[in-house]
Structure formats: structure tokens, C-alpha cells
Amino acid sequence: MSxxxxxxxxxxxxxxxxxxFGSWLKDAESSEPNDPNAVAVATVDENGMPxxxxxxxxxxxxNGFVFYTNFESQKGREILGxxxxxxxxxxxxxxxxxxxxxxxxVVGDTEADAYYASRPRGSRIGAWASKQSRPLxxxxxxxxxxxxxxxxxxxxxxxxxxxxxxxRIKPLSIEFWHDRPFRLHDRIEFRRAVADGPWExxxxxx
Length: 206
Description:
about 210 residues, alpha+beta, Pnp Oxidase, Chain A, about 25% helix, elongated
């Protein structure tokens, strides 16, 4: 049993959250029918209005949680403007949720290039063809753009667009939630004052 009275399968006795997140993500990879790495990302615009949408987590470690996008998209502009964001994972098959929020940095060019090169060719073409979050007059206009870039990059490597890269959320808090009967859920929050500081673990009322 852990110090909280829970089995180690539920919450770790360690005082940092990344190993626990890795364990829960591994469980989700075995139980979720689609995209266990899908996560809601919340941002806020210059007027203080929030936005949320689903993306795919593409990496995580002690430095933070990484996803990729078009920086000229709505979420890209909002994150670059505020340098803050939040994430929420919900694994219905496991009755578990992980929430985190923190400051955001842009990943390095080498890291972004490596991930971009690993994407399917069609996805790399799509990064060039789509003016993400901007009005689209017709579906045909998008298909025409895809055809044009497919012809342009018919052979050889497809370079990463200058406006396409990754964000890394460096969490200041990570909360683990596990469903329990009668809505008496388990909630453990890891929090710290600065992105490279020590973690404090706190049990929360459900």
C-alpha cells in the first residue's frame, strides 16, 4: 500500500508525477479503442475568451508534454500570445483523468524536424496545403491546394513549413483523478511554484 492508503496500481508513492503518468498512459494504450494519446488542449485569446480542442500528445518527459501544430492556427496564435496552456486526458475505459497546466515553450528546430520527418507523406503535404483555422471557400480549394503541393514535392524530402512546429507545456500542476463509487473519487495533485522546482503532492476532496 502507498502512503495514501491506495494500491500502487492507482497512485505512486513517489513524489513526482511523470512515472505515474507514464504508467497510466501505458494502461490506456492497452484499453482505449482509439488514440490513447488524444488530449484536450485549452488556451485563451487576447480578450480572455477560452478555447479548447483535441490534439495528439507526441512526447513527454520531465521537461513537459509536447504536441505539434500550425503556429498560424487559432491555438498557435493564442499560445504564442499567452505562453500558457492546459491539457486534459480522459480515458473512459479506465475511468481515469489527468489534468495539467503550465507555461509553454516552442520545441527546438532539431526536435521539430525529426518529428515532422516521421509523419506520413500525406500529413506532411497537408501541413503545407491547409491554412489552418482560416475560412475555406470550398472543399475543392483545399483539394486543389493538396494537389499543388503534392506536385511540388513529388519526389525527395518535404521540408517542414516555417510556421509548423511543436509546443511543450511545462506543467506547474498535474492532477490525477480516478473514478470511485458514489462519486467519492480519488484526486491527487502534484504542484510546484516554478517549472524546474520540486513537487508537492496534495490529496484533494473529490
